[in-house]
Amino acid sequence: MDVMDVVKEIVNLTEEEVKNMDPINIMLIGKTGVGKSTLINNIFRENLAETGIGKPITKHLEKISKEGIPINLYDTRGLELSEKVQKEVRDEVEQEIFNLDTYSSKEERLHLIWYCVNSGSQRLEPFEEEWVKDLATKLPVVIVLTQSLDTESSQKFKEYIESLELNVKGVLMLVAAPYRIGGHIIPSYGLAELVDLTIKIIPESAERAFINAQKVDIMVKANFAKKWARGLSQKLSWWALHQSLSLMHQFSLQARSQ
Ligand SMILES: Nc1nc2c(ncn2[C@@H]2O[C@H](COP(=O)(O)OP(=O)(O)OP(=O)(O)O)[C@@H](O)[C@H]2O)c(=O)[nH]1
Ligand SMILES: [Mg+2]
Predict the structure, then answer these.
(1) 210 found inside a domain
(2) Surrounding residues of ion ligand 2, Cβ less than 5 A
(3) For 43-57, 68-82, 106-120, which range has the lowest pLDDT when averaged over its residues?
(4) How far is 145 from 172, CA to CA, in rounded Å?
(5) Which atom of ligand 1 is nearest to the CA of 28?
(6) 42: CB partners within 8 A, 6+ apart
């Protein structure tokens, strides 16, 4: 089923309503080669990721959208094993999450994260475990087990990840694009389920974004008050200086006249 059909079916919307729907903003994170761009291409049913159509945000981040589909996907790339690169990517991603949460308009605010892990690797690195836990305190996270060709071992991996209690909204197995192995074709599956779960999470996420926006509003006001107070104190000290100078002047005049 097409993603648009899933969106329409779940939310029960007409074409017109979908057009006017605020987009769902999702960030994809995961190690190099797990299949994030493949997932994006298959969500949009077009080769959009890595064709230069995305809007570059930073060195490792790109925003990918398609006319008529109310979903914006932020694709990260190059999360390699090197600790230096990992830190660089993580810093960029964290900064962008903060920026989108703090400075962007309501339509641009992030709703959730798809953290992608290759099922075949059967491994979630310690740095990923720690990062996912941290991300889950900021936004709803769905762990996407990509390239889940062997459903039996993928299911075991899924259960293992669930047992880690990372506070994520779900762990989902999928194959984003059909695989050709020898003469066989393994069909894709799981895309509609991912969109379905995502849309169910959105109301909670929108509420969180609203609360964050309020927090930000308070923060902005507090900052403004701080700046204003600082300006005032500068004025006050200027005023105090002025007063003491004029007092000194008066004293010296008095002293001279005595
Ligand atoms: N057939 C098939 N191939 C896949 C799938 N997922 C990933 N691959 C293959 O795995 C390779 C890497 O996938 P990408 O989607 O480029 O990985 P990525 O996560 O975007 O990697 P970076 O951009 O480097 O971070 C590609 O050659 C894909 O063809 C899938 O669901 N089906
Ligand atoms: Mg990619």
Answers:
(1) no
(2) 37, 77
(3) 43-57
(4) 6
(5) 19
(6) 176, 177, 188, 191
Give the pTM: 0.80
Q: Which atom of ligand 1 is nearest to the CA of 79?
A: 25
Alpha helices in 47-176 (DSSP H): 83-102, 126-135, 151-163
- Regarding the beta carbon of 86 and ligand 1, being less than 6 Å apart is answered no
Q: What single-letter DSSP state applies at residue 187?
A: P
The total domain count for the chain is: 1
- Specify the residue with its C-alpha closest to ligand 1, atom 12: 33
For 78-132, write each residue's pLDDT tens digit: 898 888 999 999 999 999 998 888 888 878 889 999 999 999 999 999 999 999 9
| Mean pLDDT of all residues belonging to the chain | 82
Sign of CA dihedral 209, 211, 213, 219: negative
Residue 175 belongs to a domain with what CATH number?
Answer: 3.40.50.300
